[in-house]
Design brief:
The chain has about 600 residues and is α/β, with parallel strands linked by helices. It is built from 17 helices and 29 strands. Helix 12 packs across helix 17 and helix 16 packs antiparallel against helix 17. Bound molecules: guanosine-5'-triphosphate, sulfopyruvate and manganese (II) ion.
Length: about 600
Amino acid sequence: MAVAPESAGSRLDALNQWVLEVARLTRPERIQWCDGSDSEFEALVERMEADGTLLPLNPDTHPRSWLHRSHPEDVARVEHLTFVCTSERDDAGPNNHWMAPADGHARMDGLFDGCMRGRTMYVIPYCMGPIDSPLSRCGVEITDSPYVVANMRIMTRMGAAALARIEREGSFVRGLHSVGELDPDRRFIMHFPEELTIKSFGSGYGGNALLGKKCHALRIASHQARTEGWLAEHMLILGLENPEGETHYIAAAFPSACGKTNLAMLIPPEGYRQDGWKVWTVGDDICWMRPGSDGRLYAINPEAGFFGVAPGTSMASNPNALASIQRDTIFTNVGLTADNQPWWEGLGVGEPAFDWRGNAYDCNAGPAAHPNSRFTVSARQCPSYSAEAENPAGVPISAIVFGGRRASLVPLVFEARDWAHGVLVGAAMGSETTAAATGAVGVMRRDPMAMKPFCGYNFADYFAHWLSFDSEGARLPKIFHVNWFRKGDDGKFLWPGFGDNLRVLEWMIKRVEGRAGAVDTPIGALPRVEDVNLDGVPLTAEARDKLFGFDRQAWLAELDGIGSYLDEYGPRMPAALRSEQQRIAVALARTTA
Ligand code: GTP
Ligand code: SPV
Ligand code: MN
């Protein structure tokens, strides 16, 4: 069917026309409009089981669940092949790879020419965010990958309801995707923010291919958010309920594979549970927020599912995630046990018979699961999924948290003194790279607000946009920085992390309520050891020193590094951030003297 069902002559004309245009270019054998129904999903799965795209897992232990094995050279996001194509190069900024829009289109259209011959072209209308929320935005992804359709059905509100909203609004983000030949040399992920358009070719993996996620909900949305006065962020959202039954919502930005899913699904330590503390999951990766009429920031999770890192997920580290993925889950690039159960390093039970490539497992040939192997599952299957996640008005945010993997220097937690300082803390974030993107792992790089790979415009303008929220009548959240990954001299993590991170969240919320102590330092307000509840957490003297203290000389050097980093953006960098950096550097120098 070439046009949307029952739509001729409506506000879907633009969509129909685009679909026809794409079909003329890509030459598919047939076109299928996706309605998101169960029968559609079943037919897709049947096809994918028949051609080996999906391998059914053990139906007794993992009903309606499958394993998908990617092409071995297509297992992560490809930042070096990801482009932002704005008419002015400076609008994309030094934080993005840039190409002129005309060149980008020519390059991509050359790749797409005839690429769907003999294939089905799927048209996927989707909504990012609750279908009836004014904060939500719609898109349409055209793809030749049934695996992408199945994942988009879990990750977004996909199908008839989204199409109806698109018809009502008349606007949508256009995403064109083809797996091509999965050739790493013929692979590009291109964004045209001024045209609300994405073109992605040559990869079937996660953030490269599920265009609603990083491409739309972050790169395109961040651009849209700037012009419309909101924020599109790489943040989890959680609700923290205290024993009095009050819930505070926290949004936290950590780079890829740095703990968002785990924090969003946190189970409080035993003593806290008995006292009545609870954590509710609103989202684990992306947060869209905008000021409400009361001046507070209100946030929605634009996604409907989780595309979570498998390795390290266990009954001990993340029981909510493990409970979520017992049924109706697609696993990508995990290992397999002899009885067809999914397996990964850190699962803690069972043993692998096959690795992620499908070879017999050999402990000398690398891990059984790829380090960036993932599960795709509906958020509704998560025991801690918050009822408020479906609230069209969003949830009010009390605290924003930034954090990265920092083996040295950065203490467990500190609080920014005000919004402008908080924006600098976010802008100065650093983290060691992980397996979520191709390239070296463990290399420290600046990753402002965990958005380095995802901001669809110049970081200097992005920081200015963040600063602009501090306006008359605003009741902004407090901003904090955390580091769960500080290491001791023996190279081991000094902080237990996971459930125990609640102790730090408790301190933050008490700071918000004015009920917890701290010491003011040039880098921000640091808790004293006695300000955080450490009952049952044995910390060595080294751990206490490094988690709760800070090294002035080393921070002076860090502030120097931050200054040079801000300078890379030239005169576009807001002066307010530069003066924040100088204020702190001066205060540090004074106290050292
Ligand atoms: P993306 O989906 O790539 O954006 O990742 P994410 O930020 O959601 O990361 P996730 O929660 O999946 O965690 C990534 C890895 O960090 C996993 O191997 C976790 O086991 C590990 N991890 C998460 N939280 C902690 C923590 O508090 N301490 C330590 N040491 N490791 C953690
Ligand atoms: C990330 O890399 O931050 C992810 C996975 O959440 S992906 O969808 O591949 O972007
Ligand atoms: Mn992510």
